[in-house]
Structure formats: C-alpha cells, structure tokens
Amino acid sequence: MKILVVDDERDVQQLFEQRFRREIRSGELQFSFAFSGEEALQFLASQPSEAVLILSDINMPGMSGLELLRHIRQNHPAPAPPTVLMLTAYGDQQTRDQAQTLGASGLITKPVDFTALKEKLQQLNPPSA
Amino acid sequence: MGLLMLLHLAFFRYNPAQRANRYFAFYAGCLSLGAVGFYYSSRLPFPTLGLSLSFVGVAFALVGLSGLWTVRALYALFGFRPGRLYRGLWIICPGLIAVSVLLLQSGEGFLAFLAAVLLATAEQLRLVFRALRERRRGARIIGVGFGVALLTLLLIVGLLLAGTPAPSWLNMLSFVLSFLPPALGISLFLAREFALDSQLLQVKLGEVERLSAQTIAQEQEKQALLESQNETLETQVRERTGELQRSLTDLRTTQAQLTQAEKLASLGELTAGIAHEIQNPLNFVNNFAELSVELLTELQEEQARPAAARDAGLEDELLADLTQNLTKIAHHGRRADSIVKGMLEHSRAGTGERVPTDAARLADEYLRLSYHGLRAKDKSFNADFAAEAAPGLPPVPAQAQELGRVLLNLFNNAFYAVQQRQKAQEPGYRPRVSVRTARSADGRRLEIRVQDNGTGMNEAVRQKIFQPFFTTKPTGEGTGLGLSLSFDIITKGHGGTLAVESIPGQGTTFVVGLPLA
C-alpha cells in the first residue's frame, strides 16, 4: 500500500520511516512525503493513482490540509478516491466534523499514537490482501 | 437803599436763577441815586439854575424808573410773564417822567410824575393782588409791605383832600412809609428765599453726605461679601483640585493595572500559541527517544545472535539511525528551549535598551505564534499566512520583546479581521495575513508591513484605533489597549512610526517604520 504523508515538518519523514521500518522493509507499506499541500497536489498529478492513502496534517502554512482534502475530492475522483486521514493537534469535534464533511476517512490527533495508526492501516490494508 | 442794592446784587451774583434780585437791585440803585439826588439838589451850591434843574430832573427820572424796576422785579418774583402791559408801562412812564422833567417848574410836571408813579404803583398792586389771589410764595410779605405803603398814601391823600397841612415830620414819615415797606417786603422776601435756598442746600448737602456715606458703607459691605465669596471659591477650588488629583491618581493606578492586564492577556494568547509551538518539537523528542530505545533493542537482539547469522549491514543502519535520532532529539530540544526563552523574554519588562535585532525573523516568529494562538481558541479557524523579507536587510536597533509585542498585536488584529470576514461566508473568500519586511523607499527606515484581507475599517474607526480603550471587539474580548500600547512602543520607545491604511470590506495594512540608525 502506498501512503503519501503531507506535513510541513520535514522530520516527519525520518519519524515515519523509523516507525514503519519493519513494514517498509517487508514491502507491506510504501511511503512518499510532501511538505506542503501544493507539493502533495503536484505529487498526485505527476503520479496518478500511486497513493491509495493520504495522511495529511491540517495546520500548514499556505494550503491547509482541509483545502488539500477538498482539492483531492474535487479533482481526483477517479480512478479510486484515495483514503485520506487527517492529522491535527486540535482533535476537537468541530475539526472532526469539518474533515468528515469534506470527505476525510478519519482524524488522527497529534501526538500520533503510532500503535493505533498501525492498527488503522492494517484495517484498511489487511495483510492478506 | 444803596446797601439794599448791593445786597441784592450780591444775592443775584450767588443765585443768578433768581433774576428778581437783579431787578430789585436796579430798583434800589435807581431809588437810592434818586434820593441822593433830591437830598443834594437843595444842599449843593449849583452855579446855574439850569444845572440844578437837570440834576433834579435826573433824580426824578431815576425815582420814576425805580418804580418800573420794582414792577419787573415783581414779575420775576411771582413768576409772571411780562406782557404788553409791562412793555406799555415802559413806554408811558418814561414818557410821563420826561414830560415831568421838562415841566419841572410847573405843577403839571409834578402831576405827570405822580401819574407815572401811580401807574407803576397800580401795576405793582395789580401784580401783588394777583399773586395773593394765586397764593404765590412771598405774596403775603410783599402784600403787607404794599398794604402799609397804600395806607400811608391813602392817609396822605386824605390829609391833602382834607386840606389839613401836614407837619413836616409826617410828610417825611409818609414819604418813607410809602416807599420803604414794599421795598422792605420784597427785600425780606428775597432774603428769605435766599436763606431758604441755602437752608435747602444745607439739607441737600446733608442728604448727599448721608447718601454718600451710605453708598460707601454699602460698597464696603459688598467688598467684604466679595472677599468672603472669593475665599469660599478658593476653598472650593482647592477641594476640587484635591479631588481631581485623587481621581487622576486613581486613573493612573487603573491604567497601570490595565496595562498589566493587557500584558497578561497578551501573554495568555501567547501561551496558547507557545503550547502548540512547543508541542511539535516535544513530539519529535518523545518519538525519536522511543524509536532510539527500539533501535537499541533491535541492535542488542542482532548482537545476541550467533556471529554467522549477524547482519553487519543492518547493525550499521541501526547505528546510523540512532545517531540521526539523537541529533534530532538535540535539535528539537533546542527548538523548544528557544520558544520557552522567547516566552520568558516576552513576559519580562522591557529593559529599554535597543539592540540590533533581526526584525524579519521576529515578524516571522510572531506571525506563527499569533496564528496558532488564535487557532487554539477557535479550532474552525483557518487562514493563509506568509512572512516575506527583502534580501540583505540590516539589523535594526530595537527592544526585541517590545517590538515582538507590537507585531503580535498587529497579527492578532489581522487574524481577527480575516476571521470576522470569514464568518460572513462570502463565496470564494480566502483569509490571508502576510507580513513583509523591507527598507523604506529612502533607505533610512525599516518597514514592516502587516497586511490582511479582513473586514477593513471605516474612517471613523480608523481615526480612533490608537486611542486607549477604543475597541471594536465585543465587551470582554478586547481591552482596547493593544494598539495604543503598540503606538507608544513604536513612537516613544523606538522613535518610529505606526501608520495604517484600510479599505472597508477589503482589508487593512499596518506599517511599522523603524529608524535604521
């Protein structure tokens, strides 16, 4: 399963690569990184249907995660709309509702509980599949 | 008679209003001169008969004219207007007198003279009767004088008619009595008038003195009243001044407290931003620390395996990751540290010392702090924000924490404005706050332009925004001190400028100008 992580904090890349080192090594998960909403859109445009899951931060300078989500839902309806999980430090109901309305598949609060995230990813992408 | 003349001339001199005095003086003068003339006519040795006769003639004329002056005096005395009758007398009597003088030697001459005297006397009597009838002042005194004269004349006439030869003393007496009493009457009256006038004057003078004394007393009373009122006023002014002083002190205290409250409030806003800003590095520190433990465990597991089964490549990779993680932990630890330091600096009072400051970096930092502070309060809020800086900017002398406060305030306002506009749910609206730091056109100042595309403000609001306690925010949300403090910090603390441009419905730009030297 290919996952695109979008966050303005560059160290996120190293963090994810280490957290998921076993999954990456086993080829179970493949990670790509974008450091802004705009970059993420570029990636999606250049590699259509590459990513099946997008993990995006909401608070980013420039295009926010929610805007990115709106763009994805509007401009990338085919072939299969990738699953989008939103990451945010503000895990309140309002943000949750907003994300849901825009078509997010879930909301993960920061700091990220990687154990929980792994479980979620496994649900979405069962090893058997 | 001469004395009477002088007396009445004197009266007239002192009281020209009473013209009767003048006429009476003329009368007395004429009569006295005439009498003197008669007296001397028989005693002086005249060289010729003609001279003697003309001397007597003049005396006659004078005596005759005196009667007319008496008439004039009476007119004046009783306040009658001399009419045709009077003027007629002045024609007839002198005529008769002239005739009598010309015919001095004959008895007809004397009759003419007598006629003149009688005419004058008749007019005098007429006037006196009229005065008595009209109850004029002094009519009685004069009337008595005339009465005596009339009686005497009647007596003489009676004696003459009876043919009784009067003794010479009686002739003399009757002559005196026929002339003197009216004269004395008039004289007495005039003297009494004069005395009354002076008495009246005396009374009036007394009254004037009394009135002026009264006026002076009133004046003094007023003066005293004014002084006491002045004193009261001064006391009141002192009291009010004291009260004002007290309320001014109270106001200053309140203002100081409010300033402190504003500082605390801005610190509170900051804290939310700071919490978010610290959260990220802390997450990294925690994650990388946890990961490092995992890596070490894996490394130990690897090392525990038999030498043949060990994967040297994996061990190297694990060690490299460990090194990288520890570097990241150190990096994010320092990042959190600098944020805490910044927070402490903000809460500390400004030292007042200006040190070379990287204004562009400060603007960037506070823009983020402000955004996250607002986000912490309103989770639904979102906005674009960007910090730009012209290349090669020199450091500007500034009190960093104070300048930071100003920028934070401007950013907070900008985000508030875009948030308000966003609430209107305008289609296609993208809230945006940006800051651009660059040199001014003349190169002497550094300009920090804080721009938003928020609600903007109208002219009336724009003029008041730097006034203390002015706020457009709902009660309790803003103290109204932010911009006024900012203004003071920039203008007084830095010798700079804080300007604003705004278009309602389009946005606002604040420009902080700081002198570079």
3D structure, described in words:
The complex is a heterodimer of chains A (129) and B (517). The model of chain A has no long low-confidence stretch (mean pLDDT 84). Chain A has one domain (2-124): Rossmann fold. Chain A starts with a strand and ends in a 5-residue tail after the last helix. Chain A is an alpha/beta fold. Chain A contains six helices and five strands. In chain B, 72% of the residues lie in helices and 9% in strands. In chain B, a hairpin with a 5-residue loop joins strand 4 (432-439) and strand 5. The longest helix of chain B is centred in the middle third of the chain and has 137 residues, at 168-304. Chain B is rod-shaped. The mean pLDDT of chain B is 83. The A-B interface holds A 9, 11, 14-15, 18-19, 59, 61-64, 66-67, 89-90, 92, 94-95, 98, 110-112, 114 and B 276, 279-280, 282-284, 286-288, 291, 294-295, 321, 324-325, 328, 332, 372, 375-376, 379-380, 382, 384-386.
What's the total count of β strands of chain B? 7
Q: Number of helical segments of chain B?
A: 12
CATH topology of chain A: Rossmann fold
Number of strands of chain A: 5
CATH homologous superfamily identity of chain A? Response regulator
Uncertain ranges of chain B = none
Shape of chain B: rod-shaped
Report the span from N to C terminus of chain B. Answer: 116 Å
Number of domains of chain B: 2
Number of helices in the DSSP assignment of chain A: 6
> How would the global form of chain A be characterised?
globular
